[in-house]
Amino acid sequence: MLATRREFLKWTRQGILAIGLFTLLAAPTTLAQSDPLPSWNDTAPKQAIVSFVEKVTRQGSPEFVAEPERIAVFDNDGTLWVEHPMYTQLAFALDRVKTLAPQHPEWQTVQPFKAALDGDMKTLAASGEKGLLEIIMVTHAGMTTDEFQKVVTDWLATARDPKFKRPYTELVYQPMVELLAYLRANGFKTFIVSGGGVEFMRPWTEKAYGVPPEQVVGSSIKTEFKMQDDTPTLRRLPEVNFIDDKAGKPVGINEEIGRRPIAAFGNSDGDLEMLQWTTMAGAPARLGMLVHHTDAEREYAYDRNTDFGRLDKALDAAAITGWTVIDMKADWKQIFKD
After folding, report:
1. Domain spanning 36-84+165-331: which CATH class is it, in words?
2. Which residues of the chain have a pLDDT value below 50?
3. pTM for the complete prediction?
4. Strand partners, 327
């Protein structure tokens, strides 16, 4: 009986060791076979991403990039989430006008506030950047940073996109969420660099994209420190501090990140200079990509002729610089997470 028990334990130990060895040998193969970008079709953009990541992360490769220098920057509107029929932050500002209107009876006759209250988008668009900035200043200032964060969070919890009838934070692009995670898994630090308001984005980007607030670069209004009822606060002022769009994006990257990115992702002419700054630096490996909205059925189709997310000069530049254009209809299996 004792001998039988010894033999049983011997074979058990050998079996455990064999299983453990098999697991160690099999694990790399399993990992290698798993697809980190399942929402992408196996077309040129996906291949370009995987090839780029393999080159810059392979030790001994002439294009190897050390982890601290693996910086990837992403525009937000139209690159990571929907921007039609209007930028989400503009929808927020227009709702804020309606909320604040009882305190401002003069808005019933003063533009661009009258247009905002009447839903007159044509007149509102005609007011141009000046009119839109005026609305932003009035609806985003006059409160502390903590108060503004609560207003944004509360609005996002209840607001619904007019086409998809879903919360805006559910209308993030699943392929790009996978891309962000894939880059981070390979030692990249991912940043959002957007023309949108930095404090409008920071309350929700970590949950939606895995990008923490300190890695969000955006436009801002001025703030001032004040003691309010013996409590230190930062109060938002109705003055522009910085516009993080077009030529402002490389400036924002330099000031806030301090390293030149090796990968940049955008979707409009507002991202042109960011992609130029990233890819035209002469480094061994750089990646520039543009999301082209071509799917009218699952999302929207637009490029050169649109008020929001115009893709014209950057689309022409892509053919010259070698940037990869992502055809949303052809290259993405799905747009949003089910």
Report:
1. alpha beta
2. 1-32
3. 0.89
4. 292
